[in-house]
């Protein structure tokens, strides 16, 4: 790309998803590395008003300041396309880490998730519900600090009118890390959906698997609605029993969301660590 955007030089594309396109960036005055995420141009073109909502909510999102949330440094608009500049997390994603090195030990994972749940509680208190917590949205800094990415984007897409189905009929979010209630009632997602997704992300970090089994060729959303999570012990008998019990309870969403707050799950995991 190699263009200039205000004080930032925009470089190569690093990735893209359902909401945006991510490019490498460098601050022109001091060479500080960062990343810039642009709203997908096709989404901005379909409804110009949505881009305005996106920009407004992204500006609100820059107010979030927590050591376990990816820091947004600036927002703006270029040729009608909203963008957000974020800190660079050079350690990649939790998804990459597990794929490359295998499941994490409890000794490594539990302190990491204690920080993430603290960041999640902070964001919920500020009025933000993420709706797409998953291993790929947990980023690692060069020193290994884990941070939740894209909180502002989730809020922005809700305000822009994509809180349920997109124009192409694709539900936003990732079924492997989404509770049953979120699929059934996406528009009114509560903080508890993020807590469930964080528990599912910890499950993946410890076992290398998703809580539910997804059969190839079967509608994944139907799987979420009609099947129950596999107990942790059936995935990895090495996970301490007390920790497994907490995760199994946190993911049992047959009768609703087990936890309404991130602090509640954080406390239970801490107690389970002491029990073991």
Automatic annotation (TrEMBL):
Organism placement in taxonomy: Bacteria, Bacillati, Actinomycetota, Actinomycetes, Streptosporangiales
Task: Please list the residue ranges that the record marks as compositionally biased, kind Basic and acidic residues.
Answer: 261-276
Which residues lie within the region annotated Disordered? 255-276
Which Pfam family, just one, is annotated for this protein?
A: Pkinase
Q: Looking at the keywords, is Transferase present?
A: yes
Broadest EC class assigned to this enzyme: transferase
Q: List UniProt keywords, sorted A-Z.
A: ATP-binding, Kinase, Nucleotide-binding, Serine/threonine-protein kinase, Transferase
Highest taxon, organism lineage? Bacteria
Enzyme Commission code:
2.7.11.1
Q: What is the name attached to this protein's record? A: non-specific serine/threonine protein kinase
Q: Where is the Protein kinase domain?
A: 8-276
Which molecular-function annotations from GO does this UniProt entry contain? protein serine/threonine kinase activity
Question: Which SUPFAM superfamilies did the record assign?
Answer: Protein kinase-like (PK-like) (SSF56112)
